[in-house]
Amino acid sequence: MQFLNNWRIILLLCITLGLAPFFTEPHIWGKLKWIAGGAKGMQAADWFDVLLHGFPFVLLVRLLIIKLLSKKNN
């Protein structure tokens, strides 16, 4: 599972999958605004979109925490 700790792959995932589609606004941004507004009318496919487009950012935050904790321990 070395690719889960590779900065390049995770950043590539964030830029491509995380921000797709690029025009008018990224899916994840629209879904987060929808959730912040109460998530009324969201269906299973919409929640799946949140997971799909948000997962690269979860991996990025995970990697940042791991790197910060390893620096702190050294």
How would you portray this structure in words?
The chain crosses the membrane at residues 50-69. Helix 1 runs antiparallel to helix 3 (44-73). The longest helix has 30 residues, at 44-73. The protein is 70% helix and 0% strand. The model has no long low-confidence stretch (mean pLDDT 91). The chain has three helices and no strands. By secondary structure, the chain is mostly helical. It has one domain.
What topology does this entry show?
Layout: H1 7-18, H2 27-36, H3 44-73
Topology pattern, helix = H, strand = E? HHH
Proportion of strand residues:
under 5%
Note the gap between the termini. Answer: 24 Å
Give unreliable regions as ranges: none
Q: How does the overall form come out from the CA principal axes? A: elongated
